[in-house]
Amino acid sequence: MYHGYFNGTIASTDQLTVGVTDLSLLRGYGLFDYFLTYNGRPFQWDWYWERFQNSASRMHLRLPLSKDETYAIVMKLVERSNEASRKNGLATPIDVAFRFILTGGYSADSISIEKPNLLILTEMIHPVPAVQYEQGIKVILDDYVRDMAEVKSTDYKRVILMAEAIRAARASDLLYQKGGEISELSRSNFFIVKGERLITPDKHILHGITRKTVIQLAQSDFQVEERSVLLSDLYDADEAFTTSSTKKVLPITQVGELTIGNGHVGPKSKFLLERFDELVQSW
Amino acid sequence: MYHGYFNGTIASTDQLTVGVTDLSLLRGYGLFDYFLTYNGRPFQWDWYWERFQNSASRMHLRLPLSKDETYAIVMKLVERSNEASRKNGLATPIDVAFRFILTGGYSADSISIEKPNLLILTEMIHPVPAVQYEQGIKVILDDYVRDMAEVKSTDYKRVILMAEAIRAARASDLLYQKGGEISELSRSNFFIVKGERLITPDKHILHGITRKTVIQLAQSDFQVEERSVLLSDLYDADEAFTTSSTKKVLPITQVGELTIGNGHVGPKSKFLLERFDELVQSW
């Protein structure tokens, strides 16, 4: 049902393979981006493309396709998903997640970049369980900061290494902090609410497209502050939440042993999730 | 000519491929090891296996094969290389490099480890040009320390990112230092010689098998010190060199703008290279 593109070919994802001299496999040299379609249209396409291009440039990888060429492939893959969903007797087209992966490509000497490999994959969207929106999630603090956090490299070793610690704490994710300064969760951004103020870290973060969207949606109702967020800021926060393309606006009610606000999902988080849902429903 | 093993199959390396849901591709989650054969025998096999196993354990990946099973595959691949070299009319078997790669494996949700993938590849050995042994190499300092340096993860983003800076400085590699403390080169260990003392960093390093071999070879002629090595140690060092399986004992005569000793390859480095060459020739 899910298809992908690699080197001029569109095929079922389970048929797509990469040769073993690719620098992502040999040297962890790769970057990616990830977005959803809503009503069959790529959400915030211009912003995602810009970020993808920026990551590529920061990692000295030349994109093998232009924006328009890439968009044409994206829409071809959307059409394939729709065909598959019609075949399965579904009345409405299904939305999909897109994962773009750009690697250092095949390397003869196992270290030098020759020609980057670009993969464009569609994937099933894994929605966050409704109970997490109702109760909020728990995260645990981790003394870590992502190297080149603003580049969406494929380096997610840390959260995979910490999987057992997260499970043991009955938490959902890590909240990275270094020297008392909070940056982000393992795959999403971080916000706190204090009164009418919406506060989010501005350094050592991936510049999330959902983060940017939420900041826009919040402009008329909040005083938005992009600035350093310290661990001490958690103690008098009314609410906290995290944003990502799949998580949308997901409340955080506990950080380690610390309860945020009154421990329940707050009205500001709910309000912003509603605004976000309205936006994507009419996308 | 070069073959590899993946999931029960031995095939020509250019025929081996990995599916696109592998966590090395999606999340940079992989580790490896790398060693050479001498006279058709894997050099220091026991030590390499121990290190590979240790890396796997540190990254919570279960090895799908035992040491004996792996050794049997290694020797089968050595035999394949010999067959190929006979077919090409070569009288003596060629030695090869082995690269073991263990990844997080295919992941349905793009983040959870299910079953690791193990690749065993043979590769051509790229020997260091003779001129580098005669004149020594230049390295440039880089303000960096590898995360979990003692684990041979596939994370070599840094040196690929810095390739242009290395070229621009007409250097061969990076020498990592953080806060004035030297750890290692991008893919090899670091030693300095002061009089009869052989000094090498002991922290934030990959525990090189060539490093360990050289320390053994040096025992009777040097006072070996495994300890912190500071930038200031470079100023009164007589000699410096780097060790790795392909570099063996490779002299370093320049660090950035600083000349080491008299700028020529020193007698102690030559002595240790000779001892190393004797060892591998009779392996």
Automatic annotation (TrEMBL), chains A, B:
UniProt-listed Enzyme Commission number(s): 2.6.1.42
Single GO term (MF): branched-chain-amino-acid transaminase activity
Keyword Transferase: yes
This protein's record includes keyword Transferase: yes
GO biological process, one term: carboxylic acid biosynthetic process
Cofactor: pyridoxal 5'-phosphate
Metabolic or biological pathway, per its Swiss-Prot or TrEMBL entry: Amino-acid biosynthesis; L-leucine biosynthesis; L-leucine from 3-methyl-2-oxobutanoate: step 4/4; Amino-acid biosynthesis; L-isoleucine biosynthesis; L-isoleucine from 2-oxobutanoate: step 4/4; Amino-acid biosynthesis; L-valine biosynthesis; L-valine from pyruvate: step 4/4
Coiled-coil residue spans: none
Keyword annotations of the record: Aminotransferase, Pyridoxal phosphate, Transferase
Catalytic activity: L-leucine + 2-oxoglutarate = 4-methyl-2-oxopentanoate + L-glutamate; L-isoleucine + 2-oxoglutarate = (S)-3-methyl-2-oxopentanoate + L-glutamate; L-valine + 2-oxoglutarate = 3-methyl-2-oxobutanoate + L-glutamate
Family the UniProt entry places it in: Belongs to the class-IV pyridoxal-phosphate-dependent aminotransferase family.
Protein name (database record): branched-chain-amino-acid transaminase
Organism (species): Spirosoma pollinicola
